[in-house]
Structure formats: C-alpha cells, structure tokens
Write a structure and sequence with these properties.
The chain is 31% helix and 23% strand. It has 274 residues and is α+β, with helices and mostly antiparallel strands. The protein folds into 2 domains: 186 residues, Nucleotide cyclase, GGDEF domain (Alpha-Beta Plaits); 60 residues, no CATH class. Helix 1 packs across helix 2. The longest helix has 21 residues. The radius of gyration is 19 Å and the shape is globular.
C-alpha cells in the first residue's frame, strides 16, 4: 500500500447537468475540459500534471505538491469564471455551463484501486454538493463559479494570499448532510458577486436566528412563530418559510423574494433556483 500524501484537492461540479437533454450533456462534456484547460494555461498551471477522476458532470483533481495554492484559488478560479461568463453570453440558459468548485487539502492515497481513498476526498466532495453553495450560485444567473473552501484553506490561503479574490466577499456557512452524518463549517463566495445580503440556509445569521427561536420557545413554552411576519437576523429582514428576505415579503417555499439579491429569486427545498 502506498503511503498517503498531503495534497490540494479540487472538486468541480456542473450546475443542473441532469436536467439537460442528451445532446446538451454531450456538448457540456466536450466543452468542460476545454474551459478548465484554457483557464489553467492562462495562469501558468499545467493540468497534465493533475491526477483526476472524471465524472460526467465534473471531476475530482489531486494537484502536485509544488503547485502554489494561492495561484489555484486566487488566479485560476477567477480566470475560469471570466471564461465561463464569456462562454455563456451567447448561449441559452439550458446550454450554459456554471460550476461549483470546492477546495480542501489533506491526506490522500494516489494508488487507490477505484479512485482516491481518503477522508479529505470525501470532505471536498461534500463541500461541493452543499446546499448553501447551490443556492449561492442559483441566485446569480450571470455568474460562472461558486467557490467553497474549507476553514483551513480560507485561513491559510484566501485570507493571507488572496491574489485576485476578495476575502470580504466570502460567507461562512455550515455544510450539513444529515444522511451522511456530515456537518462542518466552510466559506463560500460567488466570484465577482456580492453575497452580503443573500439568505443562505446554514450560514451564521441563520444559525443565530435558530438559536433565537429556540430561546423564545423555551421562555414562552410555545414554538416561536415562523410566519411571513417573523423578523429576520439583526431585525433587518423577514422570514418567509425557508428563507430570509431583506426587502418586500414573500410567502411560501416557492415564493418570489424581490430585492434581496438584486433580482427576483425563487428557491425550492432542493436548493436550485426555480
């Protein structure tokens, strides 16, 4: 058995891949590696040296030891976002390619019989599939990339060596997969967009609101109200079912919230924009 090595891991997943027609999936699969290759080459990264595990709608990549982490996060990701935005300009919604990207680091076996064994691999895949990341990308139809990084990556790379990224644009969220007994903190941003006013289930503000509701329930002996008139975190928003609205009210899980993120946004329980 080969000893595990500490590496940088990147998990990439296409938004709404399963909703595409067969031909649209074929076209997306053809363009996906070209977009990643072009972005990597533009910032001096050699994707030929990356160990990858392909999936129809994305990939898992294990990077070489000597790849500068700040270049991957601070230059490769913004460059990929620019290329995706340009690619999508001339395409209908169903043919656009928008990506969720998760970055983490940890020990991984590079000689697995059917992939890359290691808890770090599981971790980065869980981040990429997180509900708050899906909702963040869905809220900005013109964006190309939603990036989520582990707490370690945010502290050591994003905060210290941001390159083209803006650390203040990241939001701390809780990533939870109850069926997999997974719950961890992470940091999310949508590249070149402002998440500051957007409600994300599981972020710090929602956690504080939940604690407030539990406290209210304990003191009164009755469950706290979750109606459309509930006051949001910091007293500045309104709770409407599954989301916080900082602006005009909306009612129900599939209601329309206007003004919170600069455009109409409808969120369902699966985290996708409707």
């Amino acid at each position: 058995m080969h000893h595990p090595e500490r590496r940088l891991l990147i998990c990439v997943d296409m938004e709404r891949y399963s909703r595409r027609s067969n031909l649209q999936q074929y076209e997306a699969q053809k363009e996906f590696p070209n977009l990643l290759q072009g972005a990597a080459s533009a910032v001096g990264l050699d994707r030929m040296t990356w160990s990858t595990q392909q999936a129809g709608d994305g990939e898992l990549a294990i990077l070489p030891r000597d790849v500068p982490e700040s270049r991957v996060i601070g230059r490769f990701v913004p460059e990929l976002n620019r290329r995706l935005r340009a690619y999508n300009l001339s395409r209908v919604d169903a043919a656009r390619i928008r990506l969720r990207i998760a970055v983490h680091q940890g020990l991984v076996h590079l000689d697995g019989a059917n992939g890359f064994p290691g808890s770090a691999v599981v971790f980065v895949c869980r981040l990429c599939d997180a509900g708050p990341v899906k909702r963040a990308l869905a809220a900005f139809p013109d964006a190309g990339v939603a990036l989520v990084v582990s707490t370690e990556i945010f502290r050591d790379v994003v905060s210290e060596y941001p390159e083209e990224m803006r650390p203040e644009r990241f939001r701390r969220v809780r990533v939870s997969h109850a069926d997999k007994e997974f719950e961890e903190s992470a940091w999310v941003c949508v590249v070149d967009e402002d998440l500051s006013s957007m409600p994300l289930d599981g972020d710090d503000r929602t956690d504080r609101a939940s604690r407030t509701e539990r406290s209210s329930s304990t003191s009164t002996g009755r469950p706290a109200s979750r109606s459309s008139g509930s006051v949001g975190p910091g007293g500045g928003g309104i709770r409407t079912g599954d989301i916080w609205v900082n602006g005009p009210n909306a009612i129900g899980t599939n209601a329309t919230a206007i003004g919170s993120v600069g455009r109409d946004a409808v969120f369902g329980r699966d985290g996708d924009q409707r």
